[in-house]
Specification:
The structure holds two protein chains of two kinds. Chain A is mostly helical. Chain A contains six helices and four strands; from the N terminus they run ααααβαββαβ. Classes of the chains: A mainly alpha, B alpha+beta.
Chain lengths: ~180, ~325
């Protein structure tokens, strides 16, 4: 009935995976008994169990009374820094031919962001961020703001692929707004 | 050596000269591929490559009496897990203090095609290629070449038995790869009624059967999109928090089934500027601009023509 095309089995990826496996009924009785006995001594596993239960409830619209998880979630959300990246100061160039097109590029910016960036790891993102001006390459230090376009890219990619792999974007400032806008 | 190159060139020429499948056959192929993940349980590990970035993910697809349930677990980098069940999907990000985020979409590789994939034969020429080998399995190569300038092309290699995509490559109009997925290992279980019944009863499967309403569906908007690329329609329109706390952003998604373009609408920012952006190899295109009293951002994994067409047709809604 079941045609296994490749015989390798998939091991748990980490020590916490057993909580997930237990919740999903993937363990047999002996395994389940063994891992259940770990709960009394493992507060993190208990918390993970509660969080995974909340995931299940949220999937089915039963997430009322969200308890400690949502309290932590809200607190973490409020702690998130709101960061805006200012455009780098524009150096005036005496090159009039650059201004002939209505949509002439004024500044080119390259942002490099961390792949699969979890939103709570701002420092790593910031360290990775760099801005490149047309004639001025200046790596920005730890105080640099994160890429303000990142939330849009992440939201789009999360919808489109489930995998969030932030592309390196080259962005120009242009004139896109017409007279009727 | 020269002969080898000549023969290689000849081979490529023959491959390119293959005629597109008649629309009916093309639609049938696309439909079979789209249905594969509903008919087969599987688990495996695939690699996702985007630009110079690579990620390894574990995927499992389980069939139950209420439909399919899939899980995606990032195996490197930050801990991230996606769970999809009956059209609902959430991400869990982080380790000891996980963050739960609801996703708008519930599909992911290898389940890339929409349920009514056959209709996409109207927008893509489908050509059959040769038999290749991915993750130790024989697969049939297919090329989806767009008939217009509004979508990228796709090369799929689908398992000969199950039609499950083992590999998917997004290509530009010159055939250069922009993004790709490929299984490294995969186990497929034949799906029949008895297998469905024998599938383990999960907590998710036993939970309430009625799916929740989509969050904050939009009933009105400050902007209107007057024109979409052929074959595209609006598939999602919700309000969601995004970058700025306390401000919900409208997130619309337009899609032809394979190409997705997001539109974000929010109150005008004081420092509003118009931006035009593209990813390094041009796969992702972005525009942000002012329309009336709104700031709109259009992001799509689509050629500039598609993103520009949408951007230029956005107008402020009449009061």
């Amino acid at each position: 009935m079941v045609s296994t095309k490749q015989t390798q089995t998939m091991p748990f990826q980490d020590a916490e995976a057993w909580v997930s496996a237990l919740l999903d009924g993937e363990l047999d009785d002996a395994e389940a008994k063994r891992v259940l006995s770990r709960f009394p001594d493992d507060a993190a596993a208990v918390a993970r169990w509660a969080d995974y239960s909340l995931v299940s409830d949220a999937l089915h619209g039963d997430a009322a009374g969200t308890g400690a998880f949502m309290a932590r979630f809200r607190a973490a959300l409020e702690d998130e820094p709101t960061v805006l990246a200012p455009m780098p100061a524009r150096k005036l160039q005496p090159a009039p031919y650059l201004w002939t097109a209505a949509a002439a590029a004024m500044v080119a910016i390259t942002w490099t962001v961390w792949t699969a960036a979890p939103p709570d790891n701002g420092s790593e993102r910031m360290a990775a961020a760099q801005m490149v001006a047309a004639n001025d390459i200046r790596p920005v230090g730890a105080q640099a703001p994160a890429n303000p376009l990142e939330p849009y890219l992440a939201a789009h990619q999360d919808y489109a692929y489930a995998v969030v792999s932030m592309p390196e974007m080259v962005v120009e400032k242009v004139s896109l707004a017409g007279p009727n806008r | 050596m020269r002969w080898a190159l000549f023969l290689l060139g000849l081979g490529c020429g023959v491959a390119q000269a293959a005629d597109p499948l008649p629309p009916q056959d093309a639609a049938a192929w696309l439909q079979r591929i789209a249905e594969a993940s509903n008919r087969y349980a599987y688990q495996g590990v695939f690699i996702h490559q985007h630009g110079d970035r690579m990620q390894t993910l574990q995927v499992s697809n389980r069939l139950s009496v209420t439909g399919k349930e899939s899980r995606l677990i990032g195996m490197d980098g930050a801990q991230r897990e996606v769970r999809c069940t009956r059209g609902e999907s959430v991400s869990i990000v982080g380790g000891t203090s996980p963050r739960l985020e609801r996703r708008l979409g519930s599909r992911h590789f290898p389940d890339l095609l929409p349920p009514d994939a056959g209709r996409m034969a109207a927008w893509y020429d489908v050509r059959l290629g040769g038999i290749e080998r991915v993750a130790g399995l024989d697969c049939q190569s297919l090329t989806l070449e767009p008939k217009d300038q509004y979508r990228w092309g796709h090369i799929l290699c689908v398992d000969k038995d199950s039609n499950l995509p083992l590999k998917a490559v997004l290509i530009d109009h010159r055939g250069r790869p922009l993004m790709q997925y490929s299984f490294a290992e995969l186990q497929i279980a034949k799906a029949t009624a008895s297998v469905s019944a024998a599938a383990p009863r999960t907590r998710l499967a036993t939970a309430r059967a009625v799916p929740p309403e989509p969050p904050n569906t939009i009933v009105s908007s400050a902007v209107e999109v007057k024109q979409l690329p052929p074959g595209f329609s609006r598939v999602i329109a919700v309000k969601r928090p995004l970058a700025k706390p306390g401000i919900d952003v409208e997130h619309w998604v337009f899609s032809d089934g394979l190409t997705h373009i997001s539109l974000f609408v929010e109150p005008l920012a004081r420092d509003n500027v118009s931006l035009k952006g593209a990813s390094q190899r041009g796969m992702t295109n972005l525009r942000t601009l002012r329309v009336g009293q709104s700031q709109v951002t259009v992001v799509g994994d689509a050629p500039p023509a598609a993103v520009d067409l949408i951007t230029s047709s956005i107008e402020a809604s009449p009061k």
